[in-house]
Amino acid sequence: MPAVHHKLLLEDALQDSPQTRSLLSVFEEDSGNLTEYTNQLLQTLQRVFGAQSEMGLATEQLSRQLLDYEKKNFALGKGDEEVITTLQSFAKTVGELNSLHSGLANQMADSMVFPLIQFREKDLTEISTLKEIFGIATDEHEAAMVKYSRLPKKKENEKLKADMMKEVAYTRRKQHQASLQYYCALNALQYRKRVAMLEPMLGYTQAQVLTFELYLST
């Protein structure tokens, strides 16, 4: 594997040399690994969010259940006034905790899960799309080169040869443009991924801190 540079040089896109292709393969492997890791990380973050959301729903149900004790009118419930009062007090506390859990879940959705989804749908999808466009443009250029090389070298084929030269030039320009866009996106990804990997955890920490501060203020 060649030494990894921090960016693909745009001037190399025009040369399309074996060295450039080799370096490009390193960037493509890196983006593929990043896509796989991002999907795994997102699944884990969604699991954390789901657990937090479930905690909110569970505490809400617990609060209602505690209040339901009084409504049961137990036949042997005489003297249960103290139990009822205590359960109502617990229900109030659990209800307050439910608000905190629900608020934390909302914070996690906004600042932890959503940024990574946005990174995957915007940046990683862009890389995938540009890779496909680059591949198609490269195949078209190579096909035009093959057709040109197979032309019979006869004088009466001059017009056909000129037309093929135009097609080769057109597909080369098309490939060059596609490679420039692809290289720029791959370079940009090396910087965007640093933010994308850290932002969810910063959001998670911030959500925890805000919830803790809210808890202390109540």
Automatic annotation (TrEMBL):
It comes from the Eukaryota. PANTHER family: ADAPTOR PROTEIN, PHOSPHOTYROSINE INTERACTION, PH DOMAIN AND LEUCINE ZIPPER-CONTAINING 2, DCC-INTERACTING PROTEIN 13-BETA. Pfam families: BAR_3. It comes from Ataeniobius toweri. This is DCC-interacting protein 13-beta. Residues 9-212 form the BAR domain.
